[in-house]
Design brief:
The protein is an all-alpha fold and 281 residues long. The protein is built from twelve helices and no strands.
Length: 281
């Protein structure tokens, strides 16, 4: 129950973090020759408040609470997380770790799309929310979420890398100062690899699986669906890639982020990843 409450209270922070990590910052100059300013966490927070108000800060609240409750129920002895990060809940054992990855992948997709969607979701209209958050192919075949190029691979990679860190406990018991130095070094090395994966997971989670159909064909069909309660609001974070030109996988996503926006984008809010690793060592 405490874990669920913490996740609910962290919804505004998590919503800003997700929008910040997906905000576009192309290196190419715009038509007038100027270079757009790089987004900042505070800047995104101000934009959310200005354009969407309190409703924007609480987006993703319902799926976050449901996901936190389900995670607590299934993994009661796991360490709680203070925000809904792209990293899955770490558990001992391969079967439970794989199950945690599969569950977390679906939760990340649901929560992150609920945060970024320009439509207001009616918490009392689950059917409409499903139509907004998931493609027709994903609604018909929910396992298609696991076939989003690169997403499951990235989440599995994070889980595998996080599983290496507890091995440090077998390294003996050196002096306190030396031990703390080693812990910081291990956390930094882990951050170098895991932080980009968390940014990549955040972006891939927003890509819908249309089952091989083109985005334009799907748009013609789904735009005609009645969405009476949903109302659009100004988008806070511009999509980095349009849905008719998606990332093709984990490696492709990383390469295109570096080529189009620069490698620092892969380390947005990297210190959160560092703290998450360090506190587990």
């Amino acid at each position: 129950m405490l874990f669920t409450l913490l996740c609910a209270l962290s919804v505004p922070f998590n919503g800003i973090l997700v929008r910040y990590r997906v905000s576009s910052h192309p290196k190419l100059s715009v038509e007038d020759g100027s270079v757009p300013l790089a987004p900042t966490f505070i800047g995104v927070a101000k934009r959310v408040w200005r354009l969407q108000g309190m409703e924007g800060l609480t987006r993703g609240l319902i799926p976050t609470i449901m996901g936190a409750f389900l995670t607590t129920l299934l993994f009661p002895f796991s360490r709680p997380k203070l925000y809904f990060s792209p990293s899955p809940m770490y558990t001992q054992g391969i079967p439970s770790s794989l199950f945690a990855v599969l569950l977390h992948t679906v939760l990340v997709v649901t929560v992150y799309r609920a945060i970024v969607t320009p439509r207001k979701l009616d918490p009392l209209n689950a059917r409409e929310a499903l139509h907004i958050l998931f493609s027709a192919h994903e609604r018909k075949k929910p396992w298609a979420i696991y076939k989003i190029p690169g997403l499951l691979t990235a989440v599995l990679a994070i889980q595998a890398l996080r599983g290496i860190h507890p091995l440090y406990s077998h390294a003996g018991n050196p002096e306190y100062g030396v031990r703390q130095g080693i812990l910081v070094l291990v956390a930094l090395l882990g951050t170098i690899v895991i932080a980009p994966l968390e940014v990549i997971v955040t972006r891939l989670a927003l890509q819908r699986n249309y089952g091989g159909l083109s985005f334009d064909d799907v748009l013609d069909v789904e735009s005609a669906l009645p969405l009476t309660a949903a109302r659009s609001t100004p988008p806070v974070a511009a999509p980095v890639r349009s849905e008719n030109a998606p990332y093709l996988g984990l490696i492709d996503c990383g390469k295109k982020i570096i080529a189009e926006e620069g490698w620092p984008v892969l380390y947005r809010m990297w210190f959160l990843t560092f703290l998450g690793i360090f506190l587990r060592l």
